[in-house]
Write a structure and sequence with these properties.
alpha/beta; Lyase, Ornithine Decarboxylase, Chain A, domain 1; nine-stranded mixed β-sheet; eight-stranded parallel barrel; 13 helices; binds pyridoxal-5'-phosphate; pyridoxal phosphate
């Protein structure tokens, strides 16, 4: 163990328990608290992060994963990933500072924002961060002046038109300008050591990686002709975060592996990296959000009645978190969060058309509409899973506050696997060839378990 993460950083979840049990304990504790203040909180299963890592190594054995800090910079996540030996892709000074504060050496950091503030380029120079991305002449000139010993990675544009979040308009050099940029770098005595791309967050098309790998090969050839010694290929992010995503990691992995074999065969001397964000954290985080207010609106439509003769109604629930906070995926990724109810409604319980709203005083702060829910009450908790990506961390770094408490958990089996850095064996796979959960996830929630009391550990 490198010592980034210790047992005091998380709740050890013993066999027979799940994250949901922990979450239920915490919501019960919060409901019984004497204070009127309720705040949404996360439970993060670090074992799920460990499992994702092993699955990634298995699917893409030639790729060295880095973690895109912007996706979720909570300390538990950074520590477990540092413990697993990952490098870190940082978009700004705050992220570099954060990972260096937990002890990550500068040699494991890439400053990947292609457009940077001069003061932050200087910060990288002063703190030993050597690998920096660029995608235009102006940026190159800034780095020449402020960090002349930097090693540059040329970020190329991709076709990200099908991804959840497209960035190629903002970042990435078109192929036709790469030769010019490489020539410029040579003239300025800047070493260009590699090529990076990002197919866009939530990429549903594995061929986007294959095309970009082929493009990167062309740029490597241009670089070699101009005297650059290029040895890094960075595949960026875009890998799926949720279990059961439309395109599975295995499928993406097989397309990437074939493209790598074709364009960057084993033994070619190129170090293949990826900068994964949502892949590692999405499914590891579950959030509990409390209902703070409720309003019933009668739908007075002539001729429309409920079965029991009453006037139909819709129920509006107000939550203490909304689309400008942890539910920003509603705005940016077009996702409709569906709550998991803590108590399963009885079959005879009526369901009502319902909507969930955040605390902002505007009509855009709608978390979900068109839900059919049983009658809920102020103070009830709604649980949402797959909440780890772009929900916590970077936002709080900018604001200087951590909005939601995070309780980290890990199963003993995941902790042992992490300590031994054990790759799952063949027997650890289920019939579909998927790695067996090391996580203390939701899979055993129907069993009533009895065990030791939890002592929540929050390290953020
Ligand atoms: N790399 C770069 C350059 C990014 O901009 C991002 C996210 O926007 C990522 C990696 C991480 O992407 P994802 O969360 O899809 O893995």
């Amino acid at each position: 163990m490198a010592g980034y993460l210790s047992e005091s950083d998380f709740v050890m979840v013993e066999e027979g328990f799940s994250t949901r049990d922990l979450l239920e304990e915490l919501t019960l504790g919060a409901s019984q608290a004497t204070t009127d203040k309720v705040a949404a909180f996360f439970v993060a299963d670090l074992g799920a992060v460990v499992r994702k890592h092993f699955c990634f190594l298995k699917c893409l054995p030639r790729v060295r994963p880095f973690y895109a800090v912007k996706c979720n910079s909570s300390l538990g996540v950074l520590k477990v990933l540092a413990e697993l030996g990952l490098g870190f892709s940082c978009a700004n000074k705050a992220e570099m500072e954060l990972v260096q504060r937990i002890g990550v050496p500068a040699s494991k950091i890439i400053y990947t924002s292609p457009c940077k503030q001069i003061a932050q380029i200087r910060y990288a120079a002063e703190h030993g961060v050597q690998l920096l991305s660029f995608d235009n002449e102006m940026e190159l000139a800034k780095v020449v002046r402020s960090h002349p010993s930097a090693k540059m990675v040329l970020c190329i544009a991709t076709d990200d038109s099908r991804s959840l979040s497209c960035l190629s308009l903002k970042f990435g050099a078109p192929l036709k300008s790469c030769r010019h940029l490489l020539e410029n770098a040579k003239k300025s005595h800047m070493e260009v050591v590699g090529v990076s791309f990002h197919v866009g967050s939530g990429c549903p098309d594995p061929q986007a990686y294959a095309q970009s790998i082929a493009d990167a090969r062309l740029v490597f050839q241009m670089g070699a002709e101009l005297g650059h010694t290029m040895h890094i290929l960075d595949l960026g992010g875009g890998f799926p975060g949720i279990e059961g995503a439309k395109v599975r990691l295995e499928e993406i992995g097989s397309v990437i592996n074939s493209a790598l074999d074709l364009y960057f065969p084993e033994g070619c001397g190129v170090d293949i990296l990826a900068e994964l964000g949502r892949y590692y954290v999405t499914s590891a985080f579950t959030v509990a959000v409390s209902i703070i207010a409720k309003k019933e609106i009668l739908l007075d439509q002539p001729g429309r009645e409920e079965e029991n003769g009453s006037t139909p109604k819709t129920v509006v629930y107000h939550l203490d978190e909304g689309v400008y906070g942890i539910f920003n995926s509603v705005l940016f990724d077009n996702i409709c969060p569906t709550p998991i109810l803590q108590k399963k409604p009885a079959a005879e319980q009526p369901l009502y058309s319902s909507s969930l709203w955040g605390p902002a005083a505007d009509s855009h702060d709608c978390v979900a509409e068109g839900l059919w829910l049983p009658q809920l009450h102020v103070g009830d908790w709604l649980v949402f899973d797959n909440m780890g990506a772009y929900t916590v961390g970077t936002g709080s770094l900018l604001r200087g506050t951590q909005a939601c408490r995070i309780t980290y958990a890990m199963s003993r089996v995941a902790w042992e696997a992490l300590r031994g850095q054990l790759l799952p064996t063949e027997e650890d796979q289920d019939a579909e060839g998927v790695c067996k959960p090391l996580s203390c996830g939701w899979e055993i929630t129907d069993t009533l378990c009895v065990g030791p009391a939890f002592t929540p550990a929050s390290i953020m």
